[in-house]
Amino acid sequence: MPAKKDPDASVSVPCFYGAELRFKREQAGLTLEQLAEGSFRGISFLSQIERGERRMPMDLARHVDERLGTDGFFQRRCEDAAKARRVGHPLGFQDVPDLEKQAKTLEEWGPNVIPGLLQTADYMRGLVRYERPLTPPETAEERIRARMARAELWKREDRPNYWGILRESVIRRTPVPPAVMADQLKHVVDLIRSTQSILQIVPETTPWHPLMHGMAKIMTFAEAPPLVWTDTNFDGRIIDFPTLVNEYRGSYDLLRAVALPPEASLALIEEAARTYRHEAQQA
């Protein structure tokens, strides 16, 4: 078995925090299982913190300081690491960008909007304008920059394999201006084709299907159990309970079965882009 890769502490504050945790744990001669014992947290959760992928909750920071005798270090720096991860992202979303970078596969269901990794800046501005009209302009731009930074993932040679599914209404019914939507849909098609990713559309003629009522992002990892991210208008959560993850896995697989084939889906998106472009030119 190859040696486990050391976390790169220079990447970010959470990575530095995680690398320090691993150093102190190994210095104390403890395994992940031994350190997690009595903390009400799982081994995989602790391992993800060491890799800079998850934030350290305060109750676990207290437990770690007690077990490792680190004089409150992890409690004092817990909020610093959380703030570093939160910049430009909603509170409940702060772990997701790092998890996306570490994922082996990403599978997304977008029933209401185009997923963030596929969005253009102008499309996101449109969403903020209509969904969060009271958001201060500087806050909106900070979130747009953070979302565009997430999209840097596509430029990496070791990027995760991506499979997305959208409801047809996402591209047919939108308040976003036609010119913006035309550019957005072209961006989606170009990105999916250039990265050899897969995107499917659930047609409007299929009104009932699995995962009817909310988005889902399923992430798998080389050295950790799979996770699911799901959210609503005002909050989100990471699901790591194996039974629930398997439920999402099964529903997503059924959703693939009712969606259009990948090439037919991209053709539909291209047709919609041409329609929006024509509308923009006629305006």
Automatic annotation (TrEMBL):
Instruction: Give the Pfam families listed for this entry.
Output: DUF5753 (PF19054), HTH_31 (PF13560)
Which SMART domains does its entry note?
Answer: HTH_XRE
Family matches, as PROSITE patterns? HTH_CROC1
Molecular function terms, GO-annotated = DNA binding
Where in the numbering of this chain does the HTH cro/C1-type domain appear?
Answer: 21-55
Name of the protein this chain belongs to? Transcriptional regulator
Q: Which organism is it from?
A: Streptomyces spinoverrucosus
